[in-house]
Amino acid sequence: MEILAYNIFVMTNISPADPPIEDISRLLTLVGQPVRIQILFVISGREACVCHLEAALGLRQSSISQHLMALRKAGLVTPCREGRNIFYQLEQTGVITLLQQAAQLAGIQPDVLQRLGQRPVENCPCPQCNPGMEPAQSCTNPIPKHHK
Questions:
Q1: 40: how many CB neighbours lie within 10 A of its CB?
Q2: Count of CB atoms situated within 10 Å of the CB of 133
């Protein structure tokens, strides 16, 4: 009687992912967080400052700043200073196309995503939503030194 033994620890037909595939996986993981998707859609049509993102998303500044830092490190958004204000703009517009296609596959209507970019936002102190507001009352969110 012949006994066949299998070594379940032998890695046959399994090869590591190619670097481009790993890059795609990292990108999808990065933008796969709901807050980051919201941030990207808010700034897809027009740049926005952190206080605008706070008003639009109902989140705290510290949380938004952490997500913006991750998006900046990935090269998806960039900061732009205008006077006393820092605005974030979309650097890689192709990510919006990707997210729109994902939304379509998920059965989400385009108008749901477009609402995120609507302006003005109620109770938003940013100069885009309240252009006549005194500069001292408007938001000023400088980029911390470790973000530069």
A1: 24
A2: 14
